[in-house]
């Protein structure tokens, strides 16, 4: 058994969890990945692996006992906005029920430190100003509601049981590790940047922009994109504060700058040398017009500022990953091939 502090990472074989495991290992921690591989990948695992379901309480208890877990990073969740609208039970069952199962195991093990993967979706259909943490949470889809419910649970657990917890509300996670060894890889990709790149590679034949009639300068929705490597650094900083006795809180992780869908597609075309073929379709249920973070609280308390989250770096690292993970089907070369 490693002498390094062991950190249980639920969903540690997934996109964001895997990047955080790499950051943990580099910082001297021992990641213990707990994952059911419904969306994660064994090739992404860094550290020890415990295959398991979040709703399997006895399995979680055994994992805590076997590895002497010092703290938890909790990423395991269902996370598709559209699916949450059509199948809300799945989201409340997996996300809220799974978190309660995890919290039960933590209490039994005497583990009182948690970094929780929350989301900017807790704010709902906000106005065009960058959102501070004091902005009223009013999620407009079951995915965001499930995350907001968990945040409320953690507030009560902090008060009743002394659980230290950071709820990190990140906006659009994007980009890939500089090594191009891990990145976004899903059977059913729905996120803008990877899906657009897969369209360029010939793996997606129905790439669509959902809505060009939003109240924005070019009619498409605006989002705040943060590089996954920066997210990992923020999670590590939150963990370190918990280890020092900080009780946590809710913090936005973003850049404070929003880009429209059309701006992102233009940036992808600039990097790859090819325009992204697309069609316009109606808006999707549950998609807000504008979602941009006010990151000042994270900068002050976590001492965190993104360093990899400029749009060109995001696109460049994502494209390097996709060229490796999804070789081109077309014979037409893209720039840099």
Keywords, please?
single chain, 337 residues, alpha/beta, Rossmann fold, 7-stranded parallel beta sheet, 3-stranded mixed beta sheet, 10 helices, 14 strands, 18% strand, globular, disordered C terminus
How would you describe this structure to a colleague?
Helix 5 links the parallel strand 5 and strand 6. It is built from ten helices and 14 strands. The termini are far apart. The protein is globular. Helices cover 38% and strands 18% of the residues. The chain has 337 residues and is an alpha/beta fold.
Oligomer: single chain
CATH class of the domain at 6-173 and 226-253: Alpha Beta
Order of helices and strands: EHEEHEHHEHEEHEEEHEEHEEHH
**Terminal-residue CA separation:** 44 Å
Q: What would you report as the Rg, rounded to the nearest angstrom?
A: 19 Å
Could you tell me the number of beta strands? 14
Q: Could you say what the CATH topology of the domain at 6-173 and 226-253 is called? A: Rossmann fold
CATH architecture tag of the domain at 6-173 and 226-253? 3-Layer(aba) Sandwich
What's the CATH superfamily of the domain at 6-173 and 226-253, by name? NAD(P)-binding Rossmann-like Domain
Q: Mind summarizing the main beta sheet? A: 7 strands, parallel
> Level of helix content?
25-40%
Q: Give the number of helices.
A: 10
Portion of residues in beta strands equals: 15-25%
pLDDT averaged residue by residue: 93
